[in-house]
Amino acid sequence: MMPRFLSRMIIFSVLVGIIPLLILGTFSYFKATQMIEKKVQQGNGQLLLQMFTQVEQKLRNIDHLLTQFASSSAVTSAMESPMEATHFQQANLIQADLSYLQTLAVGVQRVSLVNFKQGWVLTRDGVYRVDADLLSTSWMEEYRGLKQYSLWKTEKENENYIVNLVKSVPLQSNAKDGLVIVQMPAYTLNQFVIENSELGNFFILDRDQRIIAHSDASVVGQVFDIESDDLLLRQNEIVQYYNEKEATTYIHSDYNDWTYVSTVSLATLKKESRDIGWMTGMLIIIIVVAIVTIAFIGARSIYRPIKQLRQMTTATTKQQSKDDIALIGQAIQQLQQSQQQINDKLQQQIPQLTYLFLIRLLQGEWTEKQIQEQLAELKSAVTWQSLRVFVVQIDAFSETKYDSKDRDLLLFAVSNIVSDLTRENHRFQPLLLEERIVVIFGGNSDREQLQEQLDTLLKQIQKAVLYYLELPISIGVGREFTRLIDAAVAYREATYALRQRVFVEQSAIIYYTDQLTAVVEESYLYPVQTEKLLIDSIQALDMDGSERALQEILTSISKEQSVKQYEVMIVRLLVAIMNIVPEEQKHTTFSKLSEKSLIQQLLELSNKKDIEQWFITHVIKPIVTTLEAMKVTQYEEIVLAVKQIIDQNQGVDITLEKCATTLNYHPYYISRIFRNHTGVTFSDYLMEYRMNLAKRWLRDTDWKVSEVATKLGFINAQNFIRAFRKMENITPGKYREQQAGNSKQGD
User: Fold this and answer.
1) Which residues is 439 bridged to in the sheet?
2) Residue 611: half-sphere exposure toward Cβ, Cα within 13 Å
3) Contact at 8 Å (CB) between 183 and 109?
4) Of 188, 176, 168, 215, which Cα lies nearest the Cα of 110?
5) Quick count: other Cβ atoms within 10 Å of Cβ 310?
6) What integer is the mean pLDDT of 236-257?
7) What counts of helices (H) and strands (E) characterise the chain?
8) In whole angstroms, what is the distance from residue 707 CA to residue 724 CA?
9) C-alpha to C-alpha distances, 499 to 187, 395, 474, 488, nearest whole angstrom
10) Confidence of residue 322 (pLDDT cuts 50, 70, 90)
11) What is the pLDDT of residue 517?
């Protein structure tokens, strides 16, 4: 089952891609549809305007020619003539004008001059009576009764439609004595009508909304109702309107009240739109498939680290959730809780960590950078401009109600008193080191004021301890310093100052002074090189060299005038020698005396000779004995390892160098140890081992001599026979025969 978060990502990505696409596609489709319809309508309008212009131009040309004819002097004089035989010249003249007029007006079928007053009709073909059948009497009466001086009129004649232009004669006269009639078949207008247009149907309507020109002759004469209220208001303009089935574009002429019409089926327009819609739909489907594919691949790629986080957090999260984010959130919350628990525990451990930090600080194990890092981790900022270290120590238990068993409890009590009397913003927490209480004190006051505060504090501590515990204490104070890295030096100064209490009374406060500097820096006076020579001699088990080096060291340090300095150096020498022995061997080496009793016994000695003899007897000799035992054990292990290598490689040409390489020792070292512990050389032992093995195989197996030689690692049988004869004074074959004979005698 697909993870919920992954499915949400896919759905969201798909929606983000599809919704804008659908909106854009829909907008593009409708916009394209509108543009197509607009272009079609514009095209139809242009074609319709073209048709309108051409037809109007032809009709106006005919109208103009007819007007010239009607206003000519020949027509004016003819209207007063009875047109009898004697007037043939006048008739011929008018007929000639009529023929000329009909020739100029292409498409005109007949031109007639009607004289109601004289009762005759004159055409190009001849002169007729008004009541003749040449023209419909009803037409002429209708035309005579029209109020217009000139108009276009459509009539039906023998199933065909005729377009007539009628003008009164004389022109612009209320007395309509005659008419000039131009007859033109309606189908002659079809030449101007656009046929088989994919853009729709084009046709012409007369003033009665009757179709008089159309590419389809079957619809001529039908009435087409223009559904527009602007038909008469907006003339000579392109007008468009729509109904449920089609879009209609028309131009209404103010010249003859004709209407030029173009109709386009909405289905035709929508067909183009549907094609665009199908293309748009197919493109959208393709893009949607691409979006879904990309969304799926992209979501899986994005989900991969979330999946890894889920897998990582599944094992640690107690409550499992189907939602990945919720699960990760639970894991993060648990991590935050764990972190808070760890922080709480660290806060509880800060006093212990601070205690360890101060111990290492006083031992000089930190660098300046490490000190700052430790203070930052402990969330402790030191802004003191001046610092001092003072050390508090109990003077003695004599003449008090306590004894040495109570030392630890009393030190704890004194430490609490020091903590209570010293404000926290002026000190680090007190430390218990070497049965002393050590305090790093600091402040931002000037030197004199800080010294006064320190004096007052130390006196208060002494008084409080004496009052509450009835116990005398002495305090040693190191010199002023400004950097915490100098606390180790100040601690040594305070400790040394405290040692001077043997020369003063109890309950002393002793400040370290510049006169004691040389004593504190005893490491510069100590014979380090001679000490190294002594240690090297002891490690080399050289007792004579050890004694000479010991005498030289004792002579050097005995020149110091200060007893305390001499004690420090002699104890340092003892510790350095004892450190030669590994920790696990110290208890065995010094089993008779503990380290503490050794120091006490050493400090009780006052004679140089006695001290030298004590070092040799109680320290150096036991150490040499331990080292010798360790070396013997090591030699035995090496010899045993060499023998195991020989035993495991019976058929291999084993050498001393190969054994040394396997054991990571020098061949000479291996050879010397092997000879000292076995009494024979490596090669002799190897040869003896092989010969003993050969004698056993010759005695207990039926192997050939050559096979025995090969199994023992000899290159050829001759070398083996030669070596065997040298060791046993007999050849292998003779030895086998001899052993076989002895066996038979025993049986």
Assistant:
1) 390
2) 23
3) yes
4) 188
5) 20
6) 83
7) 24, 16
8) 14
9) 144, 11, 10, 17
10) low
11) 46
Band (pLDDT 50/70/90 cuts) for residue 77 is: confident
Distance CA 502, CA 474 (A): 11
pLDDT (0 to 100) of residue 461: 93
Give the strands of the sheet with 259-265, arranged side by side. 211-214, 201-205, 259-265, 246-252, 238-242
pLDDT of residue 372: 87
Cis omega (within 30 of 0) for bond into 305 = no
Rounded to 5°, the CA angle 527-529-533 comes to 115
List the structure tokens of 350. 């800060």
Mean pLDDT calculated for residue range 127-142: 71
pLDDT level of residue 583 (50, 70, 90 thresholds): low
Q: Which two tokens stand for residue 468?
A: 């509450």
Is the four-CA dihedral 373, 374, 378, 384 of positive or negative sign? negative
The whole-number pLDDT of residue 137 equals: 63
Q: Which candidate, 511, 492, 501, 367, places its Cα nearest to that of 434?
A: 492
Instruction: Look at the block and give the residue holding tokens 């600091």.
Output: 442
449: how many CB neighbours lie within 10 A of its CB? Answer: 12
In this model, does residue 333 exceed pLDDT 90? no
The more confidently predicted of residues 228 and 661 is 661
The three-class DSSP label of residue 210 is: strand
List all residues 6 or more positions away from 82 whose beta carbon is below 8 Å from its beta carbon. Answer: 118, 120
For 507, half-sphere exposure in the C-beta direction (CA atoms, 13 angstrom radius) is 12
Q: Judge contact between 75 and 118, C-beta under 8 A.
A: no
Q: Which pLDDT score, from 0 to 100, does residue 108 have?
A: 86
Residue type, 443: G
Q: How far apart are CA 376 and CA 370, in angstroms?
A: 10
Q: H helices within 481-527, ranges in order? A: 487-499, 517-520
- Residue type for position 358: L
Beta bridge partners of 120: 115, 129
Are residues 159 and 16 in contact, defined by beta-carbon separation less than 8 angstroms?
no
Q: In whole angstroms, what is the distance from residue 507 CA to residue 500 CA?
A: 12
DSSP string, 297-323: HHHHHHHHHHHHHHHHHHTT-SS--SS
Structure tokens at 540: 């080399």
Residue 94 is given by DSSP the state: H
Question: What 3-state class would DSSP assign to 232?
Answer: coil
Instruction: Give Rg (Cα) of the chain.
Output: 68
pLDDT of residue 520: 42
Residue 55, pLDDT > 60, answer yes
DSSP 434-468: TTEEEEEEEESS-HHHHHHHHHHHHHHHHHHHHHH
The number of angstroms, rounded, from the C-alpha of 86 to the middle of its chain's C-alpha atoms is 118
Distance CA 211, CA 223 (A): 6
Q: Where are the alpha helices (DSSP H) in 315-446?
A: 324-362, 368-377, 407-421
Give the strand pairing for 509-511 and 473-477.
parallel
Neighbours of 132 (CB within 10 A): 11
For residue 564, what are the contacts with CB-CB under 8 A and spacing of at least 6?
496, 499, 519
| Contact assessment for residue 391 and residue 408, using Cβ atoms and an 8 Å cutoff | no
Phi first, then psi, for residue 664 (nearest 5°) are 60, 40
Please answer whether residues 481 and 487 qualify as being in contact, where contact means their C-beta atoms are separated by less than 8 angstroms. Answer: yes
Query: What's the whole-model pTM score?
Result: 0.42
Q: How far apart are CA 436 and CA 472, in angstroms?
A: 13
Q: What is the residue type of 127?
A: V
Place of tokens 């004694």: 547
- Tokens 């109007």 label which residue? 56
Do the Cβ atoms of 13 and 295 come closer than 8 Å? yes
Residue 435 predicted with pLDDT over 50: yes
- pLDDT of 102-125, one tens digit each? 888 778 888 888 888 888 888 888
Residue 314: both structure tokens together: 């599944």
pLDDT, mean of residues 69-88: 84
Mean pLDDT, rounded, for 49-77: 88
Q: Pull the structure tokens for residue 360.
A: 């290492």
